[in-house]
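Project standup — Tuesday

K.O.: blocked on the structure for the chain from last sprint. Re-posting the sequence here as requested.
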Amino acid sequence: MAHADKPTVPLDAPIAVRMEVIPITFDRDRPDLNHFGKLTFRGGLNLFGRSRYFGGFSGIALDPSGATLLAVSDAGTWMRATLDYDGRKLKALQNVVIGPILGRDGKPLQRDAERDAEGLALAAGDTRVGQAFVSFEREHRISRYPFTTTSFGPPDQAVSLPKEAKAMGNNIGIEALALIRAGKLKGTLVVFPERLKDRQGNLKGWLIGGPKPGSITLRRLGGFDITDAAGLPDGGIILLERRFRYSEGVQMRIRRIAPSELRPGRLIEGEVLLEAQDNLNIDNMEAIAVHRNRSGETILTLMSDDNFSALQRSLILQFALP
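H.V.: unblocked you, prediction finished:
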């Protein structure tokens, strides 16, 4: 989608951003309804950040408690914020800081083509201090970034990509990036472009690193494209998908992929947990993260990419996975 008012000048240092939030329900017409598909809605926020650098968020991660969020943006920035809850319900986003992603030279990424961060997966540490894999499209690459509460980068490792990935078009780069943290594929990066298709029209991706690297294929359902992925506690992954047509608006899907399906050469089907059209409170949903709360529930946190457009919104939605 087009970037309407994306900042052309890179942010040169971290800044605090004043926030306003409006709590939202998932079903506007039935605000008391909490069960959608196989998921339970746990709150949502419409976000208004008072900075031209707030927006374009395409990859997110949460710490194990679900209290701190880390995100990367199409504008070559990172964001860190704290999530506030009323019991189990998402209530507010606070302490928002945005800063530049640094290049190999230690300076903020300058060119628009190199700043387009799309995917984020924690490699070590938590959302305050650690290392994270970040994928970029247009100049297709995955790099590992050390980060602290005040800096993000320079990168200390480049991930070797298949030749097929380097030949992708500008706007169909690596959207989904997940690190497997449990099971037989522990340590494997699961990587999916937005819509790299095989001859049968299914979606291609890769297992990178780990014990069984290779190409994987996801059955494409209903013309949806992939926008993000996150690792599950059992060694599987969650996939976030999007379909957009001007005649019908935007749609969203969440699929769960079992660990046993993540094998090279297998056509992956997965389990559809939720499909939503724009009669529900969604936008251009591009980012998903997973954490387990204190009661042992697996929580999915989704975020939308507003493309820096006044016609789109930055939303955060949370669901509990049974």
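K.O.: great, moving the ticket to review. The two ends are 33 Å apart (CA to CA). The CA atoms of residues 34 and 216 lie 34 Å apart.
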